Small ribosomal subunit protein uS14 (Paenibacillus helianthi), 89 residues
Amino acid sequence: MAKKSKIVKEMKRQKLVAEYADRRRALKAEGDYMALQKLPRDSSPTRQKNRCAVSGRPRGYLSKFQVSRIIFRELALKGQIPGITKSSW
């Protein structure tokens, strides 16, 4: 489980990105890079980090399912992810 502070910080970043998205798009279209630099750093979408929706783990993230590899395996073995079965040959 990730630290609560890291999870909260990432959620704050997501809100900032959504809040400044239109303003950022307009400034880029105008080519006004000086005004773009004055926006908060965390409002840039490239500063976001993918995190597991269940545990908050930043590594081993599977974007299709939005969970980490560990949680994915647990859910798949319990049969809670439709269409996923353990392979055997």
User: Anything to note?
Assistant: The chain has one domain: 4-78. The helical segments are 4-30, 33-37, 69-78. The domain at 4-78 is CATH 1.10.287.1480 (Helix Hairpins). Residues 4-30 form the longest helix (27 residues).
